[in-house]
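Study this pair:
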Amino acid sequence: MKVRNHKLLRNDGKTVPFDNTPNKSPGTITPTHLVMHYTAGGTLDGAVNWFNNSQAKASAQLVIGHDGAIVQMGAFNQKLWHAGKSRLGGLTGFNNFSIGIEVVNWGKLSGGPGNWRSWTGTLIPDNRVLIAKHRLDSTSAGWEIFDEIQYEKSVQAAIAICDAYNIPEINLVGHDDISGYRGKRDTGPIFDMDRFKGRVFGRQNDNNASGGDFMVSSATGLNLREGPGLQYSAIKLLPNNTLVNFIETDGNWWLVAEIDSNGNENNSGWVHSRWLVET
């Protein structure tokens, strides 16, 4: 992906679908920051429709759906309304100098196993929920997971934006970084902003230096693929908590071998390292 004339282009050179939101301020901005959000909703269409509703008084430059589809809702140099009241490091009013990316996700949930609910009462399947504690909260809660391709497209879009506007790593933040003081919790503990920044700015993960055992950390499982990328076919789905052995790396894609209950290596293939944790 790349940015041209303040619009996002796909890898084929075509602009992503553009749906011009009315929820913006006149004039232009010079983007110096990128702010990540989740929508607190369930669908891409729902988020786009809401940001097109003048009563929402909210918007963002990009919305990314569960399947990786992207809709742009304003040029990157337009002042859209994604940050609200915000402050960080002496800066205030982040709408004035930042781009917002909204990733479709319900975020924090209520209830428990078998009865996880969004804030609207929508039932969320257990296999889409992880229990975690936000750094600004005192207790753990259920949070909806982010999909593999959704996370990957978020990385690609962020790379294009940060490259186009020379946004440094320190200026890539979550909404909770700038508005947590007023209760905002996106992107939440599941998105893992530290690792996201590492992907966007090209840092290698130290865990892969000498090999070793890792474990799948994805409630919906992780596809073992024939090659290092989403374009390769899936060999099988590795369930959450599956142990694997690292073999080699191709950037953020790792060649691993599945480890069975007897400690033997079985199927080998490529997985995205975002969904592995060291055991």
